Amino acid sequence: MFQTKHFLALSFLLSSITLSKAIDLSKATIVYNASDEPLVAQMANIMADDIERVSGLRPKVSTHKGKGENIILATSKKSSRHKDLHGKWERYAIDTQKNTLFITGSDARGLAYGVLHVSEQIGVSPWYWWADVPIKKNLERVCNYEENFVSNVPSVKYRGIFINDEDWGLKTWASNNFEKELGDIGPKTYDKVCELILRLHGNMLAPAMHTCTGAFYSHPESQVMADKWGIMITTSHCEPLLFNNAAPSEWNKERDGEWNYETNRETILGKLENRIRETAQYDNIYTMGMRGLHDEAMKGSTNPADRARTLEKVFAEQRAILSKYKGTKANGIKQIFVPYKETLDIYDAGLRVPDDITLVWPDDNYGYMKRVSNDAEQKRQGGSGVYYHLSYLGTPHDNLWIATTAPMLMYEELKKAYSAGANRYWLLNVGDIKPMEIETQMFFDMAFNFDAFSYDNANLYQAQWLSQIFGHEHLEQFQYMLDQHYRLAWDRKPEFMGYEIQWDTRQNERLLDSDFSFQTGTAQKRLFDYENLSFAYKQLEQQIDEEYRPALFEMLGYALLSAHQMNRKFLYAQANHETGELSYAQQARDAYNQIEALRQRYNSQLNGKWNDMISEIPPGFVSQYQRMPDLVTEPTDKYRLPKEQLHPEFENKVDLCTLAETAEKSKHFRLLKGIGTDWIALQMGQPLDSEAAESFDIMLNSDLISPQSDSVSICLSVLPMWPVATDKSNRLAISIDGCQPVVCENKFIEWSYEWKLQVLENRKEFVVRLPLDKSKTQHKLTLSIVDPGQIVQKITYTCCP
């Protein structure tokens, strides 16, 4: 478990203890050099703001030292201290000597992180505005301040968020509430967004880009706001050279023609050249290549090899534009290529990406990395990065409402990428930012100091972080609630409880009943677990100070309570379908109304500060989960789930918790807590360890196997992972009593029906029948590594005659 209040910061710092004297921050003069980077002056005023927020007293900000105590802010090129920092990336040093606190940055952002580190130490959360975390007035925190250390280089060089699918959240909130004079997401909103990113130790932003929102550059002051906070602008996979072709103001088909490089090259290049001419003075990161309009596939030939040759021409012309207006060679300009969706097929067809361009590997939109760099790719000059989703709009189902990516899954998958060299660029799709604050914080903390996380503590992080805000005495309550929330969503996300498959056949797009059963009790158990979770939250809410309750509800309560009601709505509707009982129909209607009541509470608290941030339960473009399911007055099987979606589990289960001692002795097998159907799973080696070769024995309960049985059927449930490389697969082997192993391989085609079910169910199940050695009274099941990194989450079995 994390042991200190600021474990990430403190574990990240190399302490250098010196004789020093604490100072009173509220009485000190904050001093900066007027000729230093512009961000330094900005941070001097931010430091004064934060000290005033805590103490009620605002220190003086000046370019000259005061007579008493001073806080000296400077980059290393303007300071005589810590010259060893000069030329390093985003590092800082803090020294307290002779009534002076020195904060020195290796560069402007390094200096900013040093200042904001002090802000956090005295009690200003990065989420003081975005999640309304209270700032306690406390003179003691500022009147006796002393620190001495030097920070390390951030684990990942470029770290940021992508605001996406903003139609029902950030867009409606900004247009109708926060920035209604503009009626759009504009500079006022981006001012707050960029402050948050910097406070989270980030350095880049991919702005909102849906058609409903004005293009980022249609409001020129937005770029100025980003620059004011030292935040670089990057863009999504479908916005080449900062150009948003989804915005009508940027690209109009009637005016500009088809977005097709092969037939409309001059118009497209003219648009890209104008954008770079307008923005060349800013420090940005450029998306290279080309897709179709918005999230569509590239126009022209559908042959991946032909598309690869076209993209290579696009690269060359884009790089010429960059070099022309940036005034330097292309290989010295920050560029990325994101092999997302169909562009991964193009990449695999032999696309030649210039060596200095960073490859940014995407997940599958649901938290599983589709690819990481192989040995050759790890040697590329541009390195690699990650594009990871907390939120997604698309098939098989939108995931726009509540963040339910398990912390351990996020760590395990990002560790896979990081271990393969993905330390150049990490971009997180956060939807509307809210209500995904907790998960966003964890992502940034991993990006800033990945080594502070491990398999042992990743699942503990979020509870520890929340307890720092709301009280350490609530740590166990937070851990219980988060474990239950993520575990229940692991089996079925709240958005997926309607069991429809979006953008599919008319039959599959219907709302259906679940595979949780009122006959076997799994439906009642799910309702009972959610009821306990809601009770635990409401109990905690009454235990904390009233001023902290809005923040708790925004970051945790809304998600937990809403997920409970979404499950009530669908499960009681299912009970109504199975029985025709009107009492179940009323329970379902009540749940629907409770969802709306929670939304109203979210939008109305704090005098409507966040009104229209959740303008409706995000419907996406075709989803139905937000609707009220049909109710009946007599039993019907009209909504029954197709048989192929029912799970083939058996009555006897291996308790993975009992394998702890065996796993401890294993070289490659590890039990992971905080992942899987039963919230514990068995990892079969590290994904990139090509030398991992080991077997793991599990003794089956002899009382459950009849002496007359000659075989046993086993259902093996694994995580729906992707192969780490094109020459790898998802295989493991299983055997009993030393018989010939059976190799199980999860080989799927993306967008296929089988793949869609794996996404929605968060599992792949293998059913195998294995012969028993009847001469044995104890039977041993053996799992063997074939492709390292597979994760087994459940094993059930039954005897066969």
Explain the overall architecture.
The chain has 801 residues and is an alpha/beta fold. The protein contains 20 helices and 25 strands. The strands form 4 sheets. The chain has an 8-stranded parallel β-sheet with strand order 10-9-8-15-14-13-12-11. Strand 14, helix 12 and strand 15 form a beta-alpha-beta unit. It is globular, with a radius of gyration of 28 Å. The protein starts with 6 loop residues before the first helix and ends with a strand. The model is unreliable at 1-20 (pLDDT under 50).
- Report the span from N to C terminus: 48 Å
Low-confidence parts, pLDDT < 50 over ≥5 residues? 1-20
Shape: globular
Query: Which structural class is indicated by helix and strand composition?
Result: alpha/beta
Overall mean pLDDT score?
A: 95
**How many individual helices?**
20
**Largest sheet features:** 8 strands, parallel
Indicate the proportion of strand residues. 15-25%
User: What topology, given as strand order, has the largest sheet?
Assistant: 10-9-8-15-14-13-12-11
Radius of gyration: 28 Å
Count of DSSP E strands? 25
Helix content: 25-40%
